[in-house]
Amino acid sequence: MGKFFQTLYPSPSPTIPNQPPYHFPKQKMRLNKIVGELKRGLLRVEGLFRAGRMGVGLSDYVRIAENRRYYGIDGQGRVRIRQMEVDICKGCNLRCEHCTHLSPYRSGYVTTSELTEWFECWSKKIAPAEVNLLGGEPLLHPQLDQVILESKRIWNRSLLRLISNGLLFSRASEKVLDAIRTTKIHVSLSKHCKDDKNTTMFRDGLKRLDAANIRYTVRNNDRHWTRQHRENADGRPVPVNGNGEKAWNICESKFCVSLAGNRLYKCSILASAAEGIREGVLDDAWQTALSYRPLEPDASANEILEHLRRADVAECRICPETVEIVVPKQMNPDLLKRKIA
After folding, report:
1. N-terminal to C-terminal alpha carbon distance within the chain
2. Which residues pair with 259 in a beta bridge?
3. What is the largest CA-CA distance in the chain?
4. Do residues 274 and 289 touch, judged by C-beta distance below 8 A?
5. What are the angstrom distances between the C-alpha of 7 and each of 14, 16, 26, 304?
6. CB 3.0–4.6 Å: which of 29, 87, 136, 190 could bond 92 by disulfide?
């Protein structure tokens, strides 16, 4: 046991003058990691008894419990959350079937001034560990460099992520690349297509990032997707309208707190559906989503905390209650041209 604590708290080195006693970042990180693993182990034990009653697997139970316990109020009266995401672009250069953000049906972007107003407002109320800029495809934003710089200025204590399908980086402007380097925003690339054309574009984007000395990570999402909605006779998306509690239990977006229209939503799927209805690109079958009431800018810390700690809500029924794997497919552009009557 003595050697264990000597490893965590070694004596200050005499070769470094004026070294503050017991200030060891690496040892503190190691201790935090050990404590984190111990807590996770206890949650696994707890999950052996409770996961079955919730209808989820053990790993899902641990993730749900960790996120719920992370929520709290910091010393400045802001609510701590793990992540917040913002669709800075509503449309996308791809037409992925079952897109959780319904991007194939949407278009346009949020202006830099609007985003700055939203961020300034909510930065006084929430403290996200991560802020994700995505869409749609964020590289379609005409002022992406300014969006990145403003995001870093306001969310300077959060980890910033730019989530893209990577196909447009080969022709990204130098201003965008400079903003990425300056802010050190993390670039996360999600590979959606296997066809030769898009694969070549994706590889060209990687080469451009490598040449610009920008680090990135790649997620292979071109193997299988999960069904997010049904289609009507015209091929238009319609909600499932099933069991909301079961849908929440298997939902991969349950902790993707989303900022849209200067309102805070429990998840990105509810945000995209509600905004899509307001934009007139989704039909009346999605009106269920509008009954959900997101958090307004004047919400108190306790109201935010209570809202985000809730499990399923009635509107969760717009999503599937079982996991259904589908083959990745790009949609027919002619279908997307049909307007809502």
Report:
1. 73
2. 86, 264
3. 78
4. yes
5. 17, 19, 11, 41
6. 136
The average pLDDT across 259-276 equals: 94
Concatenating the DSSP letter of every residue in 205-231 gives: HHHHHHHTT--EEEEE-SS-EE---EE
* pTM summary value: 0.80
d(CA 279, CA 9): 58
Instruction: Give the β-pairing of 186-191 and 257-260.
Output: unpaired
| Cα 117 to chain centroid, rounded | 20
237 DSSP assignment: E
Sort strands 126-134 and 159-164 into parallel, antiparallel or unpaired.
parallel
Backbone angles phi, psi at 267, to 5 degrees: -150, 165
CATH class of 76-336: alpha beta
d(CA 103, CA 281): 10
The two beta strands, 263-265 and 216-220, are unpaired
**Between these two residues, 313 and 236, which has the higher pLDDT value?**
313
pLDDT tens sequence across 145-199: 999 999 999 999 999 999 999 999 999 999 999 999 999 999 999 998 889 999 9
Of 126-135, 178-187, 229-238, the range with the lowest mean pLDDT is: 229-238
| β strands within 68-208, DSSP E | 72-73, 79-87, 126-134, 159-164, 186-191
With CA atoms as reference, report the closest residue to 268 among 115, 88, 78, 93. Answer: 88
CB proximity list for 85: less than 8 A, separation 6 or greater? 131, 132, 133, 134, 163, 256, 257, 258, 259, 268
Q: Would you list the domain boundaries of the chain?
A: 28-43+56-70, 76-336
- How far is C-alpha 32 from the chain's CA centre? 25
**Rounded distance between C-alpha atoms, residue 137 and residue 32, angstroms:** 36
> How much is the pLDDT for 255?
84
Greater pLDDT, 138 or 19: 138
CA distance 37 to 32: 9
Give the tens place of pLDDT for each residue, 89-123. Answer: 999 999 998 898 999 999 999 999 999 999 999 99
